[in-house]
Every structure is written in structure tokens, then in C-alpha cells.
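=== RUN LOG ===
request id: a7f3
mode: sequence -> structure
chains: 1
length: 239
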Amino acid sequence: MKKIIFIFILTLSIIPLTAQQRTEPYVFPVKPGTEEWAKLSTSKQMDEVCIIPEQVLKSLSTEALLITCLNYPRIIDFFLVSNLQSGFDFYSKHFNGLAELIKRPDLGAICLKAYSSLDLTEARISGNKQELNILQIGFLELFLSQDVILDQLRKGEKMSLLKEAINKLEKRRELKESLNRHVTTALIISRILNSENLCPSGYDNYGNNIYDVFNSHAIVIDTSLFENLLHLSKEVYFE
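=== RESULT ===
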């Protein structure tokens, strides 16, 4: 009987610890630019130092996990490939933080909130003291364009995301940013339109539908799609 009571008390003492959520992002122990990172000679070694301990991973709130993924030491690798979607798919299987994040049931709402509060001029998400760099903002937009996010959003939320992407694409034009920085913003717009069967059609000289290629692979065949997507999305949102 005493043994049973002891086990019961021990269980009660453990529950608060395991149920407690971490609201601060995980800090990766080895980062690019450090001497320790420079000593890593293979991709496998880099992956290994980026693994988040399982106990920490499961305890991170979705907001904290999102910021953790924005701080992923290999984030530049998403943008070193011509096919951004394949880069995302690859690291969603090789980085346990991203693999966990896409499973969270509140992911859509959290990401929409973060993106809505993102100020491109200051490069900050409201409530987050960290200033985001170009790659982190691009990653957030690439992440928001994924089906796993869009499928979680209700129609009203999807339209709110469309509005935010419209505003940010217009802001990029106002800031005269290079077209390379327009890609992930336009991808959100294009995939929302596509999910509503509203995406336009347009073909290159080889018969490829430039919008199908863009939606599938995030590859820009013709830069005219930026203007076309912006024009059509404004018609859809403001109709």
C-alpha cells in the first residue's frame, strides 16, 4: 500500500513538469559564424548539432517553436536551391523542429498572427524583440504558403492572410526591393488563389503553365506573374 501511495505522489510531482510549456525559443548551442560551426565538415554533422532535444521540443509552445525554426542555423540552405519547395520538403524531414511544427494543431492561427504583425520596414514581429533578417522573413512566407497551413485556415482567415500578403507585396514594390524578395510573398497569394480555383493561366514558349510551375515548385518562369497575381488578388479581396 505504501508503495502505491509513493508512486501516486511521484506521478503528481512529475505532471506539472511535463505539462509546463516553454515560451522562450530554443537556443541552438552551435551557430554559423562561430569557431565550433567552422569545424563541422559535413552536412550530417551540421544536422546533428541542430537537433532539438526531444523533451525540449515537445514542451515548446507553438509560438516559441516557430521562432526557434526562424533561428534554424541552416535556414540559408532553403534558398540555395532553384526549387524552394523541394528545399522546404527536404528540411521538413531532416530538421526535427520543423517536423514538429507542422504537426501543431494551432499552427495556422499562430502563423497568421505572426505574419499579420510583421513589419517589413522594421523587420519585426509584434511582441518579439528579435529583428528578422531577409532569410527569416522569406522562410516565414514560404512556410505560410504550405498546404499544411492553408488547410488549417477558415475562409475568413485565408482572406486575412491574402490581405496581408497583398499589403506586403505592395510594400516590397514601394521599397523597390529586388524581385527575388517578391517570390515568397507572391507564393502565398498564388497558392491561396489556387486553393479557391481562382489562379490565372499563362503559358511560356514551351507550353508550360507558369502559374502551375510557380505553385508546385516556387519557380518563376515569367516575372509578369507578380503583377498579374497582385492585380487578381486585389480583385478577389476587394470585390
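=== NOTES ===
The beta strands are 118-119, 124-125.
The chain has 14 helices and two strands.
=== END ===
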